[in-house]
Design a protein that fits this description.
By secondary structure, the protein is α+β, with helices and mostly antiparallel strands. It has one domain (128-496): Orthogonal Bundle (Cytochrome p450). It has 21 helices and 15 strands. The strands form 5 sheets. A 5-stranded mixed beta sheet has the order 1-2-10-7-3. Strands 4-14-13 form a 3-stranded antiparallel beta sheet. Strands 5-6-15 form a 3-stranded mixed beta sheet. A hairpin with a 2-residue loop joins strand 11 (421-422) and strand 12. The longest helix is centred in the N-terminal third of the chain and has 23 residues, at 142-164. Pfam families: p450 (PF00067). Keywords: Heme, Iron, Metal-binding, Oxidoreductase. Its cofactor is heme. This is Cytochrome P450. Belongs to the cytochrome P450 family.
């Protein structure tokens, strides 16, 4: 059933579209336009119901390598061809920057002079968002990454230990959400971490889980009430954090973000609003990715057994004096190829992202596909991630060894793996997130038995309103029973990392 927020979005797009949209004569070089079952509004209803996953559904349905759908205000071109994807990567006139400004306004709620200071320079703004992305990159590699990893891995064992002691039914997705939030934000924001307050954590997830109704920007306190109230609760927490100068005890990432925004002329109130939206990058994909790898391992007992053996042999050490079991994260990276490959295969088959660009000028892609200035291009990961000509005859199958490199097999597939984005816009936090996911998964696999309350691993529904995530966040609970493995009952556990070991050998698009 459509909620009030959904109807408001449809109404806004329809009204504005009929007022502003002009029909242009179609150039024969433009990609074909595909219609919908419901004339005019069909594609809009599809987006409301399925989120960005709707783009993937369309590309699997239609044979064209690139085609357009009409959303009244503009055309959106959907790409399913690796060759066209590579042409997009080579074309500088196709840019991501306007979408950063759009989300800054609609999702973070920043307006006025602060928004203009952040807007991309090509559109007459101050370029603050571009400066912010540039400042973040060096803080997510090298020693700054090592320090964040060290703080984060110290928290993983107590979190899994608490789970091991629970009796009865546990919401596995809810646990992943809380555990990843606690570990990630503590590593980023330091001892005064605002997410320690339940109102901030709950507020952020109410915001994150209901983003879609915020996009029209029309009376969001009414049409996007859950997201709006959640955002304001998280915003209040960040105001207190900056008032206490908590950022000065945070990670290099947090310090660099604050300083860059302050240098751009933003007030602390605007910086606090912007930092709420930072949680989308820090958490929105890591939480569902952690859930899905746990889900997909435990539903395959033979694979689970193999990975337990691999971890025990190659990444686990036992302290001779205390008997403590310590998982070494760098050893997972270097000596557990099956687990690392399985992780990437789960990202390949589970991802439903749709990297997007806008045409800053008219472009002829691959010398034959005309893209008009101002048009939107979206590249759904689903069809490219499953193409036989990219991944081979078993492209539709789950193959945990697909990403293991051998002298006979190079898993690299140009333009085929999009879970971390599409070059040159690649997720800068992918190594931090992967370290965290590997640590959580290793601890759970070695310590816990998990079984769903229904007796089988059923596929939960996706939350189509959580549009910041490309990893299919689920809707509602996923209840399981957890018990400690008999072989390790009473054992103390820990995780460790080491300097210079934070970068994982991951595939990127």
């Amino acid at each position: 059933m459509l909620q009030l927020s959904h109807l408001a979005l449809v109404g806004a797009v329809t009204a504005i579209g009929f007022l502003l949209h002009r029909r242009y004569s179609r150039d024969p070089r433009e990609p074909p336009v595909v219609g919908s079952t419901i004339p005019v509004l069909g594609h809009i209803f599809g987006l409301l119901r399925y989120g960005v996953g709707y783009f993937g559904q369309l590309t699997e349905k239609h044979p064209h390598p690139i085609f357009a759908i009409d959303l009244l205000l503009t055309k959106v071109y959907l790409v399913k061809s690796p060759e066209i994807l590579q042409a997009i990567q080579r074309t500088r006139a196709l840019t991501f920057d306007p979408f950063v400004t759009f989300t800054t306004e609609r999702l973070a709620g920043i307006r006025g002079p602060a928004l203009e200071a952040l807007r991309e320079k090509q559109a007459g703004g101050g370029g603050g968002n571009q400066a912010l992305l540039h400042a973040m990159h060096p803080t997510l590699t090298g020693k700054p990454l090592d320090r964040m990893n060290e703080r984060m891995v110290r928290l993983l064992s107590p979190l899994v230990g608490e789970l091991a002691q629970r009796d009865g039914v546990v919401d596995l997705y809810g646990w992943c959400q809380h555990a990843i939030t606690e570990a990630s934000t503590e590593a980023s924001y330091g001892p005064l971490n605002p997410y320690k307050e339940k109102s901030v954590e709950d507020g952020f997830w109410a915001f994150e889980s209901n983003l879609s109704p915020l996009l029209p920007g029309i009376l969001p306190w009414i049409t996007a009430r859950k997201a709006y109230k959640g955002r304001e609760a998280a915003y209040a927490g960040f105001l207190k954090y900056y008032a206490a100068e908590g950022h000065k005890q945070g990670s290099e990432l947090t310090i660099a973000r604050y300083q860059t925004l302050a240098d751009a002329g933003l007030r602390v109130e605007d910086i606090a609003r912007n930092e709420v939206s930072m949680g989308l990058g820090l958490l929105s994909n890591t939480v569902p990715a952690a859930f899905w790898i746990i889900f997909d391992l435990y539903r395959r007992p033979d694979l689970l057994r193999e990975i337990r053996d691999e971890l025990t042999e190659n990444a686990l050490r036992v302290d001779e004096e205390t008997g403590k079991h310590v998982i070494n994260i760098p050893s997972i990276r270097d000596n557990c190829p099956l687990l690392v490959s399985t992780y990437q295969e789960i990202l390949r088959v589970r991802a439903a992202s749709s990297p997007t660009r806008i045409a800053a000028e008219e472009v002829l892609l691959a010398d034959k596909h005309l893209i008009k200035k101002g048009s939107v291009i979206s590249i759904p990961s689903q069809p490219i991630g499953r193409r036989e000509d990219v991944w081979g005859s078993n492209s539709l199958e789950f193959n945990p060894r697909r990403f293991i490199k051998t002298p006979e097999h190079n898993p690299r597939r140009p333009g085929g793996f999009m879970s971390f984005g599409v070059s040159p816009v690649i997720c800068p936090g992918r190594h931090f997130a992967s370290t965290e996911i590997m640590g959580v998964v290793a601890l759970m696999v070695l310590r816990l038995e998990i079984e769903p309350v229904r007796g089988e691993w059923w596929e939960p529904k996706s939350n189509s309103l959580a549009i910041a995530s490309g990893m299919r966040p689920i809707l509602g609970r996923f209840d399981v029973r957890v018990r400690e493995r008999e072989e390790v009952k009473g054992v103390q556990w820990d995780c460790e990392s080491r300097e210079g070991s934070g970068v994982f050998p991951l595939m990127v698009g």
